[in-house]
Structure formats: structure tokens, C-alpha cells
Target: D-3-phosphoglycerate dehydrogenase
Amino acid sequence: MQPKVLVAPAPLKEIEHVYGPVLRGAGVEMVFPTRNVQMTEDELLAQLPGAAASLAGSEPYTRAVIEKAAAAGLSVIARAGVGYDGVDVAAATDHGVAVTITPGTNHDAVAEHTFMLLLALAKNLITQHTAIQKGQWVRRANQPLRGRTLGVVGFGRTGKAVALRGQAFGMPVIAFDPFADKDFAAKHHIPLVELNDLLKQSDVVTLHMPMLPGTKHIINAESLGLMKKTAYLINTARGGVVNEPALYDALKNNRLAGAGLDVFDEEPPQPDNPLLQLDNVVMTAHTAGVDVQSRDDMARAAAEAIAKMLAGEWPTGWVVNQEVETKWRARAKK
Ligand SMILES: NC(=O)c1ccc[n+]([C@@H]2O[C@H](COP(=O)([O-])OP(=O)(O)OC[C@H]3O[C@@H](n4cnc5c(N)ncnc54)[C@H](O)[C@@H]3O)[C@@H](O)[C@H]2O)c1
Model:
């Protein structure tokens, strides 16, 4: 019998020509969600059991979902992307399910998006645009990027791509990362500093760390209090790394000049989320990592991860829960 793969993100159906050949070449039958929106836990509970793999987006792979699907033969959750906070990785490991990501496919897209948000803030894009639409012609000086210090928090693939673009804009760059790539920092003359020093010194703080128990609300009232009143905060990482009420408070009371947000604590944000009403916030709908190039690259790479693993290969750099290998191989033999 052909193994089934659930292609969970609804929009991927439109680009089946990108990853379909990889999966079909692996002898796989593809199944798609029934609705054209992000799958809920209930929908995963109904549709995932029976599939050998999920080509996964941001839908919730809870312990209940993984337990039921693993009992029915699930062996791989292959994220088309690099963040895996939507997957209960401990549950996957417990049930012998490998979780993979697609490193190297979307960091440049996020870096470009980061500068879109930053430029929109610094150049008053939204206020000018909406004023002109209303027939107003308000001309006032906006902010430069050149000469302004860019503080990169989380100096991995995306953080480094943002740092290089910052240098191209003439911005002095500093970075914080507990596991920083010191060679890269030295090569590009980027001082590595402690987080509090970065917050104090930066004119722009941009967040690129993963969502982990240790990074939850790492940006809070205290850390925002260290930032310059004239500074901007850009978050394209995950909503949970910022304490939203504290951010609102700082922005509302002019203790921070502005924020560019691609991610929120709750997505989509509730309509009464007060951040939505502020003029010094620019927002996008968690689209930083998804341009048409990165979308295709992520989908193809996730399909390749599935094809490799269904053939018994172990793509080391892509597997998040390396410790599951023995259990995973034992299940694959059954
Ligand atoms: N908005 C989007 O569409 C989008 C797209 C891609 C990735 N992301 C998010 O961006 C994150 C980073 O992606 P990446 O590809 O650069 O990942 P990466 O793994 O290459 O880099 C993350 C870096 O964060 C560092 N880090 C870990 N704990 C930290 C801490 N407490 N403080 C500061 N740094 C810390 C790590 O050492 C690592 O160098 C992802 O985990 C994901 O959540 C968002």
C-alpha cells in the first residue's frame, strides 16, 4: 500500500508542482486538508492518523495529535520552515516520531522583511500613505538608518542575514546570542555584547531567537525600560518572546518610538488587542518567512526530508529531535 502524506498547510495545494514530484517519486499518496484555512487540533486528530508523514505548517501538533497519529503509523513531522514551537517535540520523541525543519530556506526572506518593517517605521510610510489617501500632504523629516546602531538578538541564520543588510545600510551592528558564531562576528567586525548592553546601546533592536521556555517574554517591562526612548523594536521571531502588554505600555507612553511586528502572542491577534490601534506600530501577518521563493524552497525541502526518511535515511542537520533515531528506526522496521 502507498504511504500517505498529509500536506497540511492549505496554501501549499496551489504549488503542488513544486514538491509533488518529490513525494510522488517517493511512491507517496498526498492528502490535503478539507478546508482552506489553518488546520485545527480537531482536524489533525481526524485527518492525520493513517498518514506516514505530515508536510507541516504552523498547525498544532499537540501530544494528543501525535499520540493518535503515531499509533496509526506516523513517523515524520516535516516542518516547511525552521520554527517548531507548534510541535510538541517531547511527545514526538516519546512516540518515536522524527521532527524535521528546513534550515537555509527562509532566513533571507525574513531578513528582507525585517528591513521592510524597519524602513516603514523610520520613514513614516503608513502615516504618509494614509494621509495622502485622505487628501493630506504632510511633510516632516523622517529617521535615517545610516549611523544608527542595529542590535541583533539571536545571531543565527536570520540574525546574521539581518546584520549584513544592516551594514549595507551603514548601520553599526552589535549582537547578542548565548551560542554566538564568534568567527562570523569577528570576520564582519560585529561586537558580541550582553543582552542588557545591547538593549541600552541600540537604536533598533531586532529579534531572531527561537521561542523556547527560556526566551518566553525575554523582552518585558524591565528590558523595554533599558531601551532608548527613540528606539524601534522589530519582532519577526515569535510573538511569545515579547510581553505584549509591556510593549503596549512602552509604545503608548512614548517610552519606545515604534515597533514592527510580524508575529503576535495570539495569531491572528484578537480584534481588541490594543497594539492594533497604535500609530507607532507596523504589522504584518506572520509572513516574514514566506515569499514565493522561500515558500517553494521550504515546501520542496520538507518533501525531500520526507522522501529521505521514508527511504530509511536520517538527514542529520534537519532533524530536531536527534535522540529519537533508535526508536524511530525500530518503528520503521515493524
Ligand atoms: N516570522 C517568520 O515568518 C519566521 C520565519 C522563520 C523563522 N522565524 C523565527 O525565527 C527564529 C530564528 O530563525 P533562524 O533560522 O535564524 O534560527 P537559527 O537556529 O539559525 O538561529 C537562532 C539563534 O538564536 C540563538 N538563541 C538561542 N537562545 C537565545 C537567547 N536566549 N537569546 C538570544 N539568542 C538565542 C541560537 O543560539 C541561534 O543562534 C526561528 O526559531 C523562528 O521562530 C520566523
Notes: The domain at 4-101+291-333 is CATH 3.40.50.720 (Rossmann fold).
